[in-house]
Amino acid sequence: MNGKDICGKICYGCTACHAICPRSAIKMEENEKGFLYPVIDSSLCIDCGLCRKACSQKNEYNLPGEAFIAKHKDEEAYLHSQSGGAFTALSDIVLKAGGLVYGAALDESFEAMHARAVCAKERDAMRGSKYVQSRMEDIYAKVERDMEDKIVLFSGTPCQIGGLLKYLRAKGIDAKNLYTVDIICHGVPSVKVWRDLMGYYEKKEKSRIERVIFRDKGLGGWRGHITTFYLKKNRYRMRSTVSYSTQIWH
Ligand SMILES: Cc1cc2nc3c(=O)[nH]c(=O)nc-3n(C[C@H](O)[C@H](O)[C@H](O)COP(=O)(O)OP(=O)(O)OC[C@H]3O[C@@H](n4cnc5c(N)ncnc54)[C@H](O)[C@@H]3O)c2cc1C
To answer: Treating both helix axes as pointing N-terminal to C-terminal, what angle do 158-170 and 139-146 enclose, rounded to 10 degrees?
Structure first.
């Protein structure tokens, strides 16, 4: 069985069903296209229905009443952010109040995963868009534990936030200590495509990747979509108009 069987329609891969399962019967596995989806081990399933209750696909959405446009006053903050740096401003308030921040960072293989930050240095790794599905693993359970005695700011795609809120609601947990920051998101690209692409360039250039900037403000400005790979041997830039494709130069 896969995610479609749990939620009946389209699965967003938010991981709420995986996180809530009392028998650990639901694992997140990459499908053939490289997207993480829940897969049920029916030998462990007790049909308790919690996965269906936590499914974010069944969320009801409200349109926001008011909207604001914001840009961080500090140049360093917005130049190291993907857009105007609102995430830095909001997370700074939470960190200064002794709270914790969750968001998407890159692991040592340059794949996105959700992480927990207790200070600005750790939070800084969450700044910048990672155009790939972020692994959540046991992050909802960590948020739940931290929320018991601290304020928590959780940032991610609207699907991940919808999943977290449904997970907490299904467990009857009061979310008064939780603040959420949804990014505007058209959808996440596949980690398989991203992994293949990095492997391709490393092989072609015979050099390991050391650092990645998904949308380099230094090159494409605010509107550009240029991914920069820093290789061990030199810097390698890729202009990417649609996902991860086209024109390459050294
Ligand atoms: C997958 C994806 C799709 C996007 N689609 C659109 C779009 O359709 N239209 C548009 O205008 N903008 C889109 N964006 C851009 C996004 O909305 C901006 O990056 C964000 O608003 C930057 O705000 P900031 O400067 O305050 O954040 P920054 O300081 O740059 O912080 C980045 C924030 O994004 C989160 N984040 C980064 N990568 C991921 C990820 N893979 N999964 C979950 N959370 C992540 C971090 O946790 C952090 O909260 C997309 C970004 C991503 C990652």
So the answer is: 60
Q: Which fold has domain 3-57?
A: Alpha-Beta Plaits (3.30.70)
Q: Which residues contact 178 (CB under 8 A, 6 or more apart)?
A: 143, 147, 151, 152, 153, 154, 164, 168
CA of 160, closest atom in ligand 1: 43
42: amino acid identity, one letter: S
* Residue with CA at minimum distance from ligand 1 atom 17: 184
The closest residue, in CA terms, to atom 5 on ligand 1 is 185
Any long-range contacts for 78-81 (C-beta under 8 Å, 24+ apart)? 79/217, 80/124, 80/127, 80/128, 81/127, 81/128
Residue 187 Cα to ligand 1 middle (Å)? 10
Predicted confidence (pLDDT) per residue in 80-139, tens digit: 999 999 999 999 999 999 999 999 999 999 999 999 999 999 999 999 999 999 999 999
**pTM above 0.85?**
yes
In the chain, what are the domain boundaries? 3-57, 75-182, 191-249
User: Who lines ligand 1 at CB under 6 A?
Assistant: 81-88, 103-104, 112, 126-132, 134, 155-157, 181, 183-186, 188
